[in-house]
């Protein structure tokens, strides 16, 4: 008996999930699996529970201990004062540009379920609250570009 079989026996849910994956695609990649889990959590449980789900997932994966050792990055989201549109994202004080900004937007989406787009309006309170609920040090600032 493989170690994974022993571990899976501990949880009926894990066994059912593993069985479903085997039926769909025994070689399912981690990206497709993560996407499927994200869709279920967001659509079946609600985006308001994403932060709580991530906390629980981190706990069961043993990431809480790692997170305590390596504090999560500080995220600052800046909007244009006059329009409320996304201006920039900084992580640990470093403004994310081009491809890094795209990755930061995707990271925020995966954490919060909220889609940001450069130059588009967003609810800063909703985004910052969702990031903080997920355990991130998050701030919002405004810039006057006139």
List keywords for this structure.
146 residues; alpha+beta; 54% helix; 7 helices; 4-stranded mixed beta sheet; elongated; 2 domains
Q: Runs with pLDDT <50, length 5+?
A: none
Q: Round the Cα radius of gyration to an integer and report it.
A: 18 Å
Instruction: Give the averaged pLDDT, no decimals.
Output: 84
Oligomer: single chain
Task: Please describe the biggest sheet, giving its number of strands, its sense, and whether it closes into a barrel.
Answer: 4 strands, mixed
Molecular shape: elongated
Number of helices: 7
Q: How many structural domains does the protein architecture include?
A: 2
Explain the overall architecture.
This protein has 146 residues and is of the alpha+beta class. It has two domains: 3-67; 72-143, no CATH class. 54% of the residues lie in helices and 15% in strands. The chain contains seven helices and four strands. It has helices spanning 3-9, 12-24, 30-45, 50-61, 63-69, 99-112, 124-133; strands at 74-80, 86-91, 94-95, 137-143. A four-stranded mixed sheet has the order 3-2-1-4, covered by helices on one side. The protein starts with a helix and ends with a strand. The mean pLDDT is 84.
Chart the SSEs and their pairings.
Layout: H1 3-9, H2 12-24, H3 30-45, H4 50-61, H5 63-69, E1 74-80, E2 86-91, E3 94-95, H6 99-112, H7 124-133, E4 137-143
Parallel strand pairs: 1-4
Antiparallel strand pairs: 1-2, 2-3
């Amino acid at each position: 008996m493989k170690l994974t079989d022993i571990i899976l026996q501990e949880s009926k849910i894990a066994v059912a999930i593993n069985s479903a994956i085997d039926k769909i695609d025994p070689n399912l990649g981690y990206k497709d699996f993560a996407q499927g889990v994200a869709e279920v959590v967001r659509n079946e449980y609600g985006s308001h529970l994403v932060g709580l789900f991530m906390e629980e997932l981190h706990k069961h994966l043993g990431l809480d201990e790692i997170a305590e050792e390596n504090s999560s990055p500080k995220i600052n989201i800046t909007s244009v004062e006059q329009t409320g549109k996304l201006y920039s994202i900084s992580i640990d004080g470093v403004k994310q540009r081009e491809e890094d900004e795209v990755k930061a937007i995707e990271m925020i989406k995966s954490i919060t379920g909220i889609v940001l787009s450069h130059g588009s309006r967003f609810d800063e309170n909703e985004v910052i609250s969702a990031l903080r609920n997920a355990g991130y040090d998050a701030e919002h600032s405004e810039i006057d570009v006139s």
